[in-house]
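User: My advisor asked me to double-check a structure prediction for ATP-utilizing enzymes of the PP-loop superfamily before group meeting. I don't want to rely on an old file, so could you generate it fresh from this sequence?
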Amino acid sequence: MNVLGKFNVSGTVKKMNIKGRYSSMEKENVQDALLKELAGLECLLVSYSGGIDSTLLALLAQKVLQDKVKCILFDAPLVPRRAVKEAEENAQKFGISCSIIPFPIMENEKFRKNSPNRCYICKKQSARILKDQAEKLGISKIADGINASDLNEYRPGLQASNEEGILHPFLSLGIQKKQIRQLAQDCDCEFWNKPSSSCLASRIPYGEEITVEKLQTIENAENSLHDLGFSNLRVRLHGKIARIELVPEELEKAINMRARILEVLQDCGFSYITLDIKGYRSGSMDEVL
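Assistant: Sure, here is a fresh prediction for ATP-utilizing enzymes of the PP-loop superfamily from the sequence you gave:
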């Protein structure tokens, strides 16, 4: 399968750094700009999650660097089992060279305390492991799939990645999520419209301890709702209360299925089930900061 042969996305792309300085690249093809950026790296280790951003980054990097691209997928209780399985399947489907390694972040007491800089602590630790792996592989550059749209959210982990020298090719070219989806769609990648995902710890309010048991409860609840046919969703944990976030077009469906939802989420260990009428939004736990 030539998954990259059909890319043809052009337009004005703004080149930027993390500090926000821009220089335009008028009418330059987005794919060409990315390939040029990646070709200059000579070899690359990709922090891979199986999501659209890191998968597309790995595919583009392989196009220009071939076997000089390796990927690392971290496995931890923070990552839903479905996400790990999908990431493995995508890697096999697209011929991505990927190693899965355990990520012992739950052994980190500071992380488990769940302060607002939780993501900084996590990214700092993961970046150091990536650097160790890169050294073993003889690779000098490490990159992730962070893009310009991510700057619209609270991202303390980005600072940690920058401090550790992790590259962000999409971000450095000012490429946003919608452009990444367009690139993936144009090459017939069926994951192009895959909902964004995040670690399960983001469902727990800041200040409440993160435990494996809580993460498993959240994962089981979200799996149960996915099995009922709901798409992009979050189950936020507030003690024994489940606060369900759904995309607006599925709110009425949830009301009609409330008895079944009540049943499956109580089976997951929740005593009270609530539906957030504001709907799904990324980073809703950050609204209190």
